[in-house]
Amino acid sequence: MNMNNISLIGFMGSGKTSVGKELAKLLPDMELIDLDSYIEAMSGRTIPEIFETEGEAAFREMEKSALEDIFLTGELTGSSYILSLGGGTVTSEACRRMIRRNSTCFYLKASIDTLVSNLETWPGDRPMLKGGKSLRSRVEELMTTRGPIYEKTAHHVIKIDGNDYLAAAVEIVSLP
Ligand code: S3P
Questions:
Q1: Which of 39, 112, 138, 160 maximizes the CB count within 10 A of its CB?
Q2: DSSP state string for 76-91
Q3: Which residues contact 137 (CB under 8 A, 6 or more apart)?
């Protein structure tokens, strides 16, 4: 078990990748891993391609095996990681258990307004937001089920409405 690992969870657009980068500057001995990028490198495909060809369930399995790989490698090599997870990684119970056991987990908690505004500004290619619904109603719908999951998975909740990623990273490293 390595509680020196840090994991960042939260909805798409909450700033997990950006806070991870700020944390990596503050904690140069830790290696930054973005789970989506790790899966893309591992599979040789982009996240939208994986969703398109194999579907969400297969992607969730890939998230689980990627986490198993990462935590096991950390154990074997004595490395500590800053992990920026995907917005839906914690929808799997197995992933939640692994994350809580092997890392100190931080929920980057942003309001629906912040999430919608960030996702409008930086839409990216996010399969979970596709479909006929408006962006706001899709975010609200997903957050209704995911909000409580983020809260119960995290060891600490970090509020992040002003998009001040450095401040969030400083708050994380300052916690006892
Ligand atoms: C997802 C979030 C994405 C990515 C995939 C699914 C989700 O990551 O893992 O598109 O279910 O919320 P980000 O939160 O980094 O956008």
A1: 160
A2: HHT--EEEE--TTGGG
A3: none
β-partners of residue 81 are 31
The reply to whether the predicted model has a pTM over 0.90 is yes
Q: Ligand 1 centre from 91 Cα, in Å?
A: 11
- The whole-angstrom separation of Cα 149 and Cα 146 is 5
| C-alpha of residue 88 to centroid of ligand 1, in Å | 6
Supply φ then ψ for residue 109, to 5 degrees: -95, 110
* Average model confidence (pLDDT) across the chain: 95
Give the tokens for residue 40: 């893309």
Dist. CA 125 → ligand 1 center (Å): 9
Q: Closest by alpha carbon to 169, among 49, 43, 6?
A: 6
161 vs 158, more confident: 158
Alpha carbon distance 142, 67 (integer Å): 23
CA–CA distances in Å: residue 99 to residues 72, 76, 139: 12, 17, 24
Q: Is 36 in the pocket of ligand 1 (CB under 6 A)?
A: yes
